[in-house]
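Form 7-S
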Amino acid sequence: MQKTEKNTAPSKKPIIALYNYGGGMRGLLPAHFMQKIEETTGLHMADMVDVFMGPSTGSILNAALNIPNPHDPQKPKFRARHMVRFYEREGLHIFPRDSFRAFRSMIHDFNNRTMRIEQLGNLLKQGHYQQASLGRSLRALYGRSKLSDSLKSLIVPVYNIEGDALHPTQEQGETPKSPVHNVNTFLNEGGHAVWLKNIKFEAAINPPRPPVVDIYDAVMASTAAPTYFPCFPFQMKETETSPTKTIAGIDGSIFDNPCISYMGALRQHIPADRDLIIIVLGTGYFNRSYRKEDWNRFGSLGVVDPSNDMPLINIFFYASETALLDSFRNEMGKNLHVFNKSLVSGPYAHEYPNTDIDDASPENLRRLKNFFEMTLEENRSSFNEVCELLTKNYDAMHKIPTGTASLKQRIKRTFLKDQNQ
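Output:
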């Protein structure tokens, strides 16, 4: 799986991909990182990145930074600082304080034994946050923009819980008799991962036609975190002339991580003569180990009990990433840049933000900002390197000679002036 060493590095412009993790309100962490990158370089993220990837709250960020400005369609409508404000402003509308947390606490205090099953079922149905609140916030961001409108390549992962089979699709340049893609040869029925993607970077191999789907629908489905939001059904077409099909989508974080996005959605489009650089902005991780005595003591309900930090769910989210991470790192080598940090260990862990995705309290927003600043300082050298890589990528995209400092300074002055307006 490791790439063959080359005598000389590729002379063509590398392809830079940005992966933003899921994590609800913890999306403030990559939002802060991107704001800092934009302030440092004087450029928009969409000016410097070729491919945006990531599920759930990561898809909220990625999509927003790729919405065209209605007054200048070649430029993005939003900067990263707008997304910081989005989380700070909309958080309590999307996650009203204590509504779901109090419900879960009540259920587990009763330990699911003092109620009739029918009553418990009725209560459980009310456990979701109001999807309409999230919908209003996202509609204000995306309007009626289509996935095909994204300024740069955009990949939104969604898990479709319905569907009898994965249907083959034909990609650009293929004949009806040529091999088809997106066919699952191991499982031909039931739920399955769906990559909603608009691949448009230069020299991409066999870029699929972007499906006909609203960005709003794609992101609403990718953010439908189980136990927090209900499934989000939406309609899409493979092409303008294809029949309409319905996707019953839940959170892409169910299956997605940087390793899987790379292997499942991006790698097949990267030309052999191009380097791929992947920048990963995390939302804090909380993968824990468990002693066998504790695991056996949890029992069937305890492994999904929030009071135990839902150990089984925790394992499900991290298991595939731990299985693929070594191979992923070996293949990417020095072209992988990760900014992430544990939320459950370290000398200042008592000051870290809440691991829950739905804590939009002012105190937790403060902790998220502090956590970002701590992570930045611990990775300052890598951060500076990434800013330099992104600036060089912008230069290469726009055929700007290396070392044109005056132009970069002028861009930055203009950017900072716009920020203050």
